[in-house]
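User: For my dataset I need records formatted as: sequence, then structure tokens, nothing else. Please produce one.
Assistant:
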Amino acid sequence: MKNKLLISSALAGGLVLGGSAFAQTTVTGSLDLHYRSITNDGQTGSTMLSRNGIGRETQLNIQSKGKLNNGLDYAAGFSLEFDGDSTAMVNGARNNTAVYSTQLGSISNENIYIDITAGSTTLTAGIDHVQNSTMHSAPMVRSQLDDVGFGTAWNLAVTDQVGARTKEQMYVGIVQAIPNTGLSLSAIKAPQGGDRGATDQSVTTSSGRNSSYEVGVKGVNAFNVQGLNLHAFKNKETKSDLTSNDLSGTTYGIGYTFGQFGVGAEQLKQNRSSDSTTAEVNMKATLYSATFAVNKELSLGGVYTTNRIENAAENEKIKTAQIGYNLGPVAIIGHYDLINGANGSTAASAEGKQLGVRLSTNF
């Protein structure tokens, strides 16, 4: 789950449930309620001109860490994420399958891991846990792409999940911290594209996709420069029966926070062509951000993203103003977004506005 106030201190607690001299188990959780008002310009006929509603997400995290009997460190855990109700309203009637199938596939495919660490080296297996290409280095109050990329009316192509999306599948890998640099190198490999884990005693039948890999580097206070963050990742899956080209993506980013100010830039590129969604085309998105911490509670931010889509008539553009306020155990995040040229279209219906307010708490 990425629903966090990114440039304010984390609000996290833990309840120790049990363990021994060698292990400690904790349970944490989070709750997000998100009001959004969406106006889609140029829509006519039966299509609604504006949409309003409140979404919700709850997450439960179970984690354990300690020592193996050979002295090495270990950590293990999983998360259960519930993205709202299991039914949806479709044309005014309750639909029992549309959201249910989506939620069923998302409850238990996040932050699953077993890590074994020796010094600065960690061997890992799981899904959606280690550093990866969806991480941001540019400072933002909250990820702009999270707030505009899901559930909106414009069918946006831009996404922070580029290329092979290796971290969204079951993988094995290694993370190597480089001492005294603030840098960590990582490499992960998913044996089967699209495989989020079969049952305990069986192997997922072939999906027609190949294995993929992702390599990258993440830096926090990189090169001992306080406030300097950076990342660079590349993933690739060779074409198969279900894809007409290799699925590959790269992300680069840098951010620098000095005093109350922060600035940054990122680029997301993907060479992708399958027949599943409009997001899977060749494109290059560039993101610029700036933040200002008014005080320890109040943060302001601005984000501008432009996305060049292959053979599209228009560049996709997103302008966002953000505000975040920490109330101790609860954070309030507001955003106002202007969307132009959604999915590369020049139609009036590809223009719109969005206003959102999110309440977030961790426990």
